[in-house]
Write a sequence for this structure.
């Protein structure tokens, strides 16, 4: 049974401040190392991640559509910021300032999209293609950060070559840096298995950072010198440590709009806008599923709020602000009740960075790198490939095609190339003429019927795939709370994974709210695999 939702606004702040503040402490402890690490991985100054997390907490809270999610920097922005810095670098040292300008404009466009009520545009994007983008981002993170974790360097701009170089340069890895990285990896892998209260008091990322500091002293990373091992000399010095400014004011950087007339600039703008919008909206929907009070995010308002926050972050040197799933999950599991927990974690981060700045200067860079190496591996692990295959061989093809295209081009081409690949695949599976194919998508006749007994019937017709998924979801969302309804696919030629995924998610929420949604008409279809979400076609 759904719990009674806490009050919102100022009343919610007064009623739940203890629970929200308690949860925010745990979130801030995770956000501190991750925000620094994400910025470093994106080729930005470390404080860029902290600025994003602080703005995401303090600014976004006052205008947002979500209730309990946490906002800040996330791994999804790493690849697009790296790419922006690369293509906008003109040798003047202003590359990141140009990217900041692109961040500001992308945020403004995001805000406009929300005001125009286009928050649901992310539902058009095929779910397997999004997984392919995320896997490519994972490989990019892994390929870049593995060299930091080993103190090696790859000269190539190619991600694949970076991976090859990681293996090739393994004999040249700095063993003293590798020791710190391996200890951090061990903490990540075994932290949850150690049930001691003292260990569980702090999240794994904080333990990784804390345990790396004694090594910095043991190897004397504060002075330039060499250490010997097995007859080889290895350079040790401050270059292995996090470079933090003396105070926050010195970290502020301002956008440079000097490249606004170039195609590279606008490619960066659009890439940032699309990737951050898709990820934020997808995470907002995911957070709604685990919200104990089953509150719904206003996706349009959320998009506007995130856009405004991204603008604010970019104006002072921060990377884009988005909704983040891990910190949101921690927020919920630690008892947060309202949006104010997001503000508290932003304020706590500001406090932490002021108090802990001298300590953070003693942290080896490889400690942050190993956190990201692990994150990148999870995004593109063999389990992800197996999961895609379980959905059907065609989903694996869409997934790998999107991933490879992204790695060899950029995120924008990868995204739209992946969608085109999925569309071609759907056309092949539907086995109709091209004209008929698009008629069955955009003029299918899908409708909702209100029966005289108070129940509802949604008749899905033609081809139900990612292109008309928003229409199907709109009909589902028009169902009254607690209504008895049937969704009938008997007149469909093809049903894609995106439609099935969103439909079953809606079914769970609708039934928790006291309603029923019965799915019929799929028995006459041939499925790509035995998985419930496998694409289905009828000949």
């Amino acid at each position: 049974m759904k719990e009674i939702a806490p009050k919102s606004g100022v009343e919610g702040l007064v009623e739940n401040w203890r629970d929200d503040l308690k949860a925010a402490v745990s979130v801030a402890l995770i956000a501190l190392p991750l925000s620094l690490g994400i910025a470093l991985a994106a080729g930005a100054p470390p404080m860029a991640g902290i600025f994003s997390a602080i703005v995401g907490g303090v600014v976004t809270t006052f205008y947002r559509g979500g209730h309990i999610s946490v906002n800040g920097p996330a791994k999804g922005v790493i690849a697009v910021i790296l790419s922006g810095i690369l293509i906008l670098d003109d040798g003047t040292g202003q590359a990141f300032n140009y990217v900041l300008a692109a961040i500001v404009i992308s945020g403004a466009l995001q805000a406009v999209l929300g005001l125009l009520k286009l928050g649901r545009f992310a539902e058009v994007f095929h779910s397997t293609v999004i997984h392919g983008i995320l896997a490519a981002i994972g490989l990019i993170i892994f390929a870049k950060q593995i060299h930091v974790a080993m103190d090696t360097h790859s000269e190539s701009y190619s991600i694949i070559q970076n991976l090859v170089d990681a293996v090739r340069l393994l004999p040249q890895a700095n063993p003293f840096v590798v020791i710190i990285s391996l200890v951090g990896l061990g903490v990540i892998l075994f932290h949850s298995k150690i049930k001691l209260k003292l260990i569980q008091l702090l999240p794994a990322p904080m333990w990784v950072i804390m345990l790396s500091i004694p090594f910095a002293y043991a190897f004397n990373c504060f002075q330039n010198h060499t250490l010997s091992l097995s007859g080889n000399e290895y350079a040790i010095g401050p270059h292995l440590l996090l470079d933090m400014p003396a105070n926050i004011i010195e970290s502020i950087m301002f956008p440079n709009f000097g490249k606004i007339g170039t195609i590279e600039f606008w490619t960066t703008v659009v890439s940032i806008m699309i990737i951050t919008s898709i990820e934020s909206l997808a995470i907002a929907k995911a957070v709604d599923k685990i919200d104990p009070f089953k509150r719904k995010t206003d996706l349009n308002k959320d998009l506007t709020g995130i856009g405004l926050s991204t603008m604010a972050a970019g104006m002072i040197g921060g990377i884009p602000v988005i909704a983040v799933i891990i910190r949101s999950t921690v927020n919920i599991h630690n008892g947060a009740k309202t949006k104010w927990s997001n503000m508290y974690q932003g304020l706590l981060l500001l406090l932490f960075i002021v108090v802990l700045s001298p300590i953070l200067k003693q942290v080896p860079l490889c400690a942050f790198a190993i956190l990201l190496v692990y994150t990148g591996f999870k995004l593109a692990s063999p389990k992800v490939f197996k999961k895609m295959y379980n959905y059907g061989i065609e989903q694996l093809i869409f997934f790998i095609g999107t991933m490879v295209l992204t790695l060899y081009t950029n995120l924008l081409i990868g995204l739209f190339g992946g969608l085109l690949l999925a569309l071609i695949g759907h056309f092949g599976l539907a086995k109709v003429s091209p004209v008929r194919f698009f008629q069955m998508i955009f003029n299918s006749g899908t409708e909702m019927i209100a029966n005289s007994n108070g129940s509802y019937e949604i008749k899905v017709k033609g081809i139900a795939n990612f292109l008309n998924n928003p229409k199907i979801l709109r009909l589902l969302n028009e169902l009254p709370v607690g209504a008895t309804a049937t969704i009938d696919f008997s007149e469909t030629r093809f049903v894609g994974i995106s439609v099935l995924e969103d439909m079953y998610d809606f079914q769970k929420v609708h039934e928790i709210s006291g309603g029923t949604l019965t799915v019929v008409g799929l028995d006459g279809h041939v499925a790509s695999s035995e998985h419930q979400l496998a694409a289905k076609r009828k000949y």
In short: Residues 9-41 form the longest helix (33 residues). The first strand starts at residue 70 and ends at 72. The CA atoms of residues 33 and 205 lie 6 Å apart. DSSP finds 21 helices and ten strands in the chain.
